[in-house]
Design goal:
This protein is α+β, with helices and mostly antiparallel strands. The chain has 9 helices and 14 strands. It has an 8-stranded mixed beta sheet. The chain has a 4-stranded antiparallel beta sheet with strand order 9-10-11-12. Helix 2 packs antiparallel against helix 3 and helix 3 packs antiparallel against helix 4. The radius of gyration is 20 Å and the shape is globular. The N and C termini lie far apart (67 Å).
Length: 339
């Protein structure tokens, strides 16, 4: 009897499987300590100069400046990336300009259902809430789920009950009413359409200890079905952070971002594909576009390099420049992310 020698066939898929298996046994480590960095977004969509009055443009730029400075002040004082993310997003949640918190869009039923998530790049911890209707700052509740529960995601009444147990601020549903969003719902009802709120907010921060964090908060889609969940509270789709690669927050057509697992894909392209941050972000958004979706991402790598990519007419965004001052951009032809 003769024996044939065993042939070992090594395919790219097998290499990736081994790499992923090995990576699962590693504990994330801080990046080298250095200069803190922060980047934020206030949503992507049809943002055109022709549709923007000087007063409205000023209000957007001023609020984005206040938000990013709130987070950057935390970082400069030695605070954590998580603290900075929460601080910046709370400012935008409290503004009626954005589709998050106070400015959330309405569902088909005329209610506001809010989603949020946050992720810690050092320990890969994450927290998320979805379908909440009485929480002023969903990002704070998402963080509480991460830090003060044994879970990653809580929904609806259960999430709000958890908030009350912790003494987190609750508000009546009327707090979220804005005439602008109500009028948008009436228009969508007449047209029998579902549209993006163009105002999901997000933040990614790198603190002086070398740790990354990311967070995202949204009201979802105008005229969405009650109970609809988009990408913002889905870890790996709308939010992701890993000290070994990058932090990401997304905005756009959530269903496509979920299908393309956008946030995690950017990190994986860097970690396993060796792509630099901007190319990884561009690749992920190109995939969303190929599926038929629109939107964008902000990202930071472990060295504080900023990545911004979007396939819409504009994206509300801001980051800290080399001089330590906020750089605020809105339109497609402005600075980072422009094509």
């Amino acid at each position: 009897m003769s024996f044939r020698p065993l042939r070992l066939i090594v395919t790219p898929a097998a290499i990736l499987f081994v790499a992923l298996s090995m990576a699962g046994t590693l504990v994330a480590q801080p990046a080298p300590a250095g200069k803190p960095m922060i980047v934020i977004h206030g949503g992507a969509g049809t943002i055109l100069r022709s549709r923007m009055t000087p007063d409205l443009e000023r209000r957007y730029r001023d609020t984005l400046t206040i938000a990013i400075n709130a987070g950057y002040t935390v970082l400069q004082s030695g605070g954590s990336a998580l603290d900075a993310v929460e601080a910046a997003i709370r400012v935008m949640e409290d503004s009626p300009l954005f589709n998050a918190g106070k400015g959330a869009v309405f569902t088909h039923d005329g209610t506001n259902e809010l989603d949020a998530s946050v992720m810690d790049g050092l320990h890969l911890r994450a927290g998320a809430v979805t379908g909440i209707r009485h929480i002023r700052n969903p990002i704070s509740l998402a963080r509480a789920v991460m830090e003060r529960s044994k879970h990653v995601m809580l929904a609806g009444a259960g999430a709000e009950r958890f908030a009350k147990e912790l003494g987190i601020d609750t508000v009546p549903e009327s707090y979220f009413f804005t005439q602008r969003r109500w009028d948008e719902l009436q228009k969508a009802l007449r047209a029998d359409s579902v549209s993006g709120g163009h105002g999901t907010v997000g933040c990614v921060a790198l603190d002086m200890h070398g740790n990354l964090a990311a967070g995202t908060s949204t009201g979802g889609l105008t005229n969405k079905r009650a109970g609809r969940i988009g990408d913002s509270p889905v870890i790996g789709a709308g939010t992701y952070a890993d000290n070994g690669s990058c932090g990401v927050s997304a905005t756009g057509d959530g269903e496509y971002f979920i299908r393309a697992t956008v946030a995690r894909t950017i990190a994986a392209l860097m970690e396993y594909g060796g792509l630099p941050l901007q190319k990884a972000a561009d690749s992920a958004i190109a995939r969303v576009g190929a599926l038929g979706g629109t939107g964008g991402v902000i990202a930071l790598d472990r060295h504080g390099r900023v990545g911004i990519s979007f396939n819409t007419e504009g994206m509300y965004r801001a980051y800290i420049g080399e001089d330590g001052k906020a750089v605020v951009e809105m339109y497609r032809d402005e600075g980072r992310g422009s094509k």
